């Protein structure tokens, strides 16, 4: 599956969840539902994927956690905030850089319409 198809599948699943549940729930609820739907769609999904930090010769296992890593390729960060801001974008770009992933997607389930609550990032 190419990156555009993968991203489209993730967005479609997220939209279906958002239509059914609406905004206002905890991020963890959307995360569980999205993980379930993506696995049902036949995708490999890793939840809370640890991303260690390597500093000089030290490997820090207490690095970062990617909300969902899809097909070992797409970084998916979920939010339930008023709006996606520069800190959220920087966070996702950092995950992409550290993990050498080319594509990231931020989905804000708190948006009234999910088309206004998503941002795709490419490196």
Topology pattern, helix = H, strand = E: HHEEEHEE
Q: Look up the CATH topology.
A: Trna Endonuclease, Chain: A, domain 1
Largest sheet: 5 strands, mixed
What is the terminal-to-terminal distance? 18 Å
Residues in helix, %: 25-40%
Radius of gyration: 14 Å
CATH C-level class: Alpha Beta
Query: Would you report the number of β strands?
Result: 5
How much strand content do the residues show?
Answer: 25-35%
Q: Per the principal axes of the C-alpha atoms, what is the gross shape?
A: globular
Compute the number of structural domains: 1
Low-confidence stretches: none
Number of helices: 3
The secondary structure category is alpha+beta
Widest β-sheet, arrangement of strands: 1-2-3-4-5
Question: How is the secondary structure organized here?
Answer:
Layout: H1 3-21, H2 27-40, E1 45-55, E2 58-70, E3 74-79, H3 86-99, E4 103-108, E5 118-122
Parallel strand pairs: 3-4
Antiparallel strand pairs: 1-2, 2-3, 4-5
Task: Give descriptors for this structure.
123 residues, alpha+beta, Trna Endonuclease, Chain: A, domain 1, 5-stranded mixed sheet, 3 helices, 5 strands, 38% helix
Q: Explain this structure to me?
A:
The protein has 123 residues and is an alpha+beta fold. The protein has a single domain, classed as Trna Endonuclease, Chain: A, domain 1. It is 38% helix and 33% strand. The protein contains 3 helices and 5 strands. A 5-stranded mixed sheet has the order 1-2-3-4-5, sandwiched between helices. β3, α3 and β4 form a beta-alpha-beta unit. The protein is globular, with a radius of gyration of 14 Å. The chain starts with a helix and ends with a strand. The model has no long low-confidence stretch (mean pLDDT 94).
């Amino acid at each position: 599956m190419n990156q555009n198809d993968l991203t489209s599948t993730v967005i479609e699943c997220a939209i279906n969840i958002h239509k059914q549940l609406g905004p206002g729930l905890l991020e963890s609820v959307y995360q569980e539902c999205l993980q379930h739907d993506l696995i049902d769609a036949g995708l490999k999904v890793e939840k809370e994927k640890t991303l260690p930090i390597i500093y000089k010769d030290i490997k820090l296992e207490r690095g970062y956690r990617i909300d969902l890593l899809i097909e070992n390729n797409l970084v998916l960060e979920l939010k339930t905030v008023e709006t996606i801001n520069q800190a959220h974008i920087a966070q996702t770009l950092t995950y992409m850089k550290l993990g050498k992933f080319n594509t990231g997607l931020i989905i804000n389930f708190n948006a009234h319409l999910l088309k206004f609550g998503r941002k795709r990032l490419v490196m």
